[in-house]
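Hi support team,

I've been running sequence recovery on a batch of backbones for a student project. Most finish fine, but this one hangs at about 90% for roughly twenty minutes before it completes. I'm not sure whether the input is malformed or the queue is just slow. I've pasted the structure tokens below so you can try to reproduce it. Let me know if you need the job ID as well.

Thanks,
M.K.
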């Protein structure tokens, strides 16, 4: 009985999930103003440089527009230039399948009393080299996207900036780790060789 109930509720849950889950980006209204500190065309270093992001409701929308906003998430997103020929970064209208914005910057509860909020983000060390912009999504209490805002225009051509990955910059560290593994392989062989010799000499006795 309990297990049947469980299965039924699981079924209902997944049904609700499919009806609820599909949010199309094209259905969202751009009500959020988002800005980020990097200037158009600047080059930042992953793991080092900071980005200040600022967000709030565009005040030309009527009071109460953000009535159902519960949370806001800021994300780092690939510009079209860095998506070309890379299916794993593809833009899909269905937000469940969209790969444009893969990097979380910050998530905060929506605060209606503030016209703008900001956050300083140190670019994560594993961010790949690419051209980016910043986008914010507002979520309702069901966790669905209900509005957005971004630092670039609708066609994603303005205010883009570049991030340089750590690889290729901290080569001394990489070289050190290669040397270390070479050393361990050599010492392993050395160890076996010594053991073999020891074995031989003791059998001679
Ligand atoms: C970024 O912020 C961190 C923490 O506040 C600070 O230690 C670091 O020096 C900043 N980096 C740059 C390049 O300003
Ligand atoms: C705020 O929203 C209005 C109405 O959609 C729009 O015309 C205006 O460009 C927006 N302001 C900014 C700074 O994006």
């Amino acid at each position: 009985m309990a297990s049947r109930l469980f299965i039924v509720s699981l079924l209902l849950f997944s049904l609700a999930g499919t009806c609820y889950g599909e949010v199309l980006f094209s259905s969202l209204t751009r009500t959020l103003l988002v800005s980020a500190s990097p200037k158009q065309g600047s080059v930042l270093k992953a793991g080092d440089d900071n980005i200040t992001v600022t967000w709030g409701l565009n005040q030309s929308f009527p009071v109460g527009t953000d009535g159902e906003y519960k949370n806001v998430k800021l994300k780092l997103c690939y510009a079209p230039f860095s998506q070309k020929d890379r299916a794993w970064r593809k833009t899909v209208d269905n937000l469940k399948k969209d790969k444009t914005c893969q990097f979380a910057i910050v998530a905060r509860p929506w605060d209606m009393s503030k016209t703008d909020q900001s956050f300083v983000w140190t670019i994560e060390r594993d961010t790949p080299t690419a051209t980016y912009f910043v986008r914010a999504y507002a979520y309702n209490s069901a966790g669905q996207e209900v509005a957005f805002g971004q630092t670039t225009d609708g066609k994603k051509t303005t205010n883009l900036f570049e991030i340089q990955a750590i690889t290729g910059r901290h080569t001394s560290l990489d070289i050190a780790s290669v040397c270390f593994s070479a050393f361990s392989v050599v010492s392993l062989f050395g160890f076996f060789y010594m053991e073999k010799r020891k074995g031989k000499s003791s059998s001679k006795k």
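--
Follow-up from support: It reproduced on our side and the slowdown came from queue contention, not your input. The two ends are 76 Å apart (CA to CA). No action needed from you.
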